[in-house]
Amino acid sequence: MRLTVNFLAFLAGWFGSVLGAAAGMPWVGPVIVLMVATLHLTIVPQPLKELRLLLSALLIGAVVDSLATAMGWVSFDVGVLVDGLAPYWM
Questions:
Q1: Which of 3, 20, 46, 86 could hold 65 in an S-S bridge, CB 3.0 to 4.6 Å?
Q2: Is the per-residue pLDDT at 9 higher than 90?
Q3: What does the H/E/C string look like for the chain?
Q4: What is the dihedral of CA 31, 33, 39, 42, to 10 degrees?
Q5: What sign has the CA pseudo-torsion 5, 7, 12, 13?
Q6: Would residue 70 be called left, alpha or beta, if left means φ above 0 and alpha means ψ between -120 and 50 degrees?
Q7: For residue 60, what pLDDT is reported?
Q8: How far is CA 4 from CA 15, 51, 83, in A?
Q9: pTM
């Protein structure tokens, strides 16, 4: 059951981020992702290990997405705080 809840919550976070940004409301995604991460950390047996994993994934994702943005492979219209870096909703 925990796996199903995590999977559905992940999908909600992903769709919230993408659809929120597409609708011109990039803040929606991070709010949903924060709620999903909080839910996840409350239902896992070892939340500190999971938190480290989540923070590592956040850092790696930010670096990879920012590299792709800086190299011109992708571009974004909303949520960009610093030119050349990935938007905060990513």
A1: 86
A2: no
A3: CHHHHHHHHHHHHHHHHHHHHHCCCCCHHHHHHHHHHHHHHHHCCCHHHHHHHHHHHHHHHHHHHHHHHHCCCCCCCCCCCCCCCCCCCC
A4: -110
A5: positive
A6: alpha
A7: 96
A8: 17, 19, 38
A9: 0.77
Which has the minimum average pLDDT: 19-28, 35-44, 72-81? 72-81
pLDDT reported for residue 86: 85
Torsion angle of C-alpha atoms 72, 34, 7, 17, degrees rounded to 10 = -40
Helix 28-43 and helix 47-70, axial crossing angle in degrees, nearest 10: 150
